[in-house]
Design brief:
The structure is a homodimer of 407-residue chains.
Chain A: H1 16-32, E1 38-42, E2 48-50, E3 55-58, H2 71-84, E4 96-97, H3 99-112, E5 115-119, H4 122-134, E6 145-149, H5 154-157, H6 160-164, E7 169-172, H7 177-186, E8 190-195, H8 206-216, E9 219-223, H9 238-242, E10 250-255, E11 265-269, H10 274-283, H11 295-308, H12 311-330, E12 342-346, H13 352-361, E13 364-365, E14 367-369, E15 380-384, H14 391-402
Chain lengths: 407, 407
């Protein structure tokens, strides 16, 4: 029972009341216009068809390279199911495991030039790793002050309160290296938690972070899910390709179910950190319980690694960049010129849903974002470009945007 | 920056330093004897074979009905991959979804006579649901006092700190209904979080909890992963089969990758609670992000539902109970007579690993548990019985246990 006369402070880290109130207004309006809650079947040609025959391409999907429907990946998943004969033989991998997951992790380790351990999702990885960073068990044993970037994804922010049960937790203004350096000056051990690539565009400042690491020993944890596969010679992502070697004070997590085209997640450590890997397998929450990636996901991810090791990856990366350039040549956005495939086409709060509806009718599903999800004057259409779109379709998308009254 | 002169209390909910220190000693010793870190291939006959040819059956696996290797489930997974042509088309289901998941949820809803929503794992379900219970969004809008059973699984306890950021969190002694009733008397809104079936045996007192719900409006959240499929006419599990109807103040979560034989998890609500389902899909963390069960898991789970709807389920449930009875007739344990298939065969701290090793050499992998994981005088071998074991193998298992010096 409470043994404390001081009223505890609530909602230091999350506030569902606020989040649900804001989100509900947004989702109700989106759904009322038929732009949420869509059920449709995905055809071999990459187009969705609804029950009443409406066809559209999903430009709100993170499969930026269109690898998710690659026959080699599907065949890899099927082969693994046939070979192992189980989806999941339920036991903690600390005790007994089939060679399947080890084979995948070897393959990903060589692909990403790091020691790779897998998880069922990037958020399961964060659930396992962040509390162990906070308690010092993945660094040098001393509890660090843990600093979260203000814009870090909710899948990491969810664990702020858990980390705060172990150590001091701070929130830094977005990409504010001065704030972070101040914390480093004041505290011996600091860990920084952020997205490598933000879902609304922009990256963590990799070079400056590495400089702080060099100078102060800063521990770095990146979720770089949004850039895996689309950036880097082997698709190793923005952060991994920005650093020479993953050292023993850096962990990069990335999902395998966005551009990578399979399912699950990869956790990259320094190549010699089998001690960190073992700590995670034994004590990393969801990573320690009996819930590894299922056999189909393992087989699919293994086949995807083969594609990442082949010239086909570069072809798809280049095709994506061509589509982005085509789009940028015609539509002005704040993201213009970025390698990252998400663009927010600004429109007025009054018009944004109608433009979204017109695009949907023309066969392009994009996400309208508007108040209260963003400020009233920041409304727009979130367009996620894909490598598989024919150039003519990119042009038609631009035509459709331009024929609309945006403001 | 900290604006507080009062030193915050740490480790109110978790303590990694303690957990890792205790766990490391246990795992080091287990691994040193070759009883952890085993890599082996699973054959069609249900036996594992290591690289150097040692064959064993895994009696530390939660696939109590041996459904995990059922050809119908594997074929279901393969069929779904062929039909949908993607493992995961990455987008939040709130926006666009394929009918696959809805088909599975319809099937599970009818099987378990509740409104079912799926998740990639029971722990992802808890990550999504518990914070929304704490903030009142899955009950009547008022924040409850949240009471966790002391023995609740770590996958729920992980979210204590997150819940405590929203409301008052208490820990009740295991199954202590007096403690819980006292809290109900003092507070208008109370939610109770517990396992339906505990992994070391024993259940939540369903009847008494329902009585408290009736009297005080207590909100109940159960993780009943360990009894799904092995208990109930349709395998709906211990808690679901103990209550007439899932009402609007009860949520039951259960994994689909233990006895159920597939992968993923089911969340059961009251049949009319599509509002709760919608809240979860929009605001339930991992349930809201773009990470649903992958297509293979969906297909496997759908095929498993067909088996659960057929006479084969009862045959397997009965076969499991026969194996349990055979075991109980020869080996004395505290769990003797329970329907639940886990038995802890007590042995002295000095002998327990040697008995485990002898069993392993004879082809039975069981988990030795010993200090510091349990008290020094509580050491034993955790044996998880399975329906697929031939009776002769159960007898040979008992022979091997009995020929050993336990104390």
């Amino acid at each position: 029972m409470p043994d404390d006369l001081i009223a505890p402070r609530r909602n230091q880290f999350m506030n569902n009341e606020k989040a649900v109130a804001i989100g509900s207004r947004f989702w109700e309006e989106t759904a009322a216009h038929g732009l949420a809650g869509i059920v449709a079947s995905l055809g071999k040609d990459g187009y969705f068809t609804t029950d009443n025959g409406h066809r559209f391409v999903n430009l709100s999907c993170c499969s930026y390279l269109d690898l998710d429907s690659h026959p080699h990946i599907i065949q890899g998943a099927i082969r693994a199911l046939e070979k192992y004969g189980v989806l999941d033989h339920c036991i903690s991998r600390v005790r007994v495991q089939m060679p399947a997951l080890l084979e995948l992790e070897d393959s990903l380790s060589s692909l990403f030039r790091a020691k790779v351990v897998t998880a069922i999702s990037a958020s399961a990885a964060s659930a396992g790793i962040l509390p162990l960073i906070a308690s010092g068990h993945l660094a040098n044993g001393e509890k660090p002050v843990v600093v979260f970037d203000k814009n870090a994804h909710f899948s990491m922010n969810l664990y702020k309160a858990v980390c705060a049960d172990e150590t001091e937790v701070l929130t830094a203004p977005h990409n504010d290296m001065n704030f972070l350096e101040d914390v480093c000056k004041k505290h011996k051990n600091v860990a920084y938690i952020c997205d490598g690539t933000y879902s609304m565009g922009g990256h963590a400042p990799a070079e400056e972070l590495l400089a702080l690491q060099e100078k102060y020993g800063l521990f770095l944890y990146f979720d770089d899910s949004h850039s895996l596969s689309i950036v880097g010679e082997k698709g190793e992502g923005y952060i991994r390709s920005s650093i020479q070697e993953v050292n023993d004070r850096t962990i990069i997590v990335a999902t395998l179910n966005k551009a990578y085209g399979a399912a699950g997640a990869a956790i990259m450590f320094g190549p010699k950190r089998s001690d960190q890997a073992l700590t995670l397998e034994r004590f990393g929450g969801p990573l320690a319980w009996s819930q590894p990636m299922n056999t189909a996901a393992i087989g699919g991810a293994l086949a995807a690694a083969e594609i990442h090791n082949s010239p086909e990856l570069k072809e798809r990366q280049e095709k994506l960049q061509r589509n982005i350039k085509l789009f940028d040549a015609r539509i002005d956005t704040e993201q213009k010129g970025l390698q990252f495939p998400i663009r927010v086409v600004r429109a007025s709060h009054e018009n944004v849903i109608n433009v979204g509806l017109d695009l949907y009718r023309q066969g392009f599903y994009v996400s309208p974002v508007f108040f209260p999800i963003v400020a009233r004057d920041k409304a727009g259409l979130r367009v996620m470009l894909r490598a598989g779109m024919p150039e003519s379709e990119v042009q038609r998308l631009c035509d459709t945007i331009l024929r609309n009254k945006l403001f």
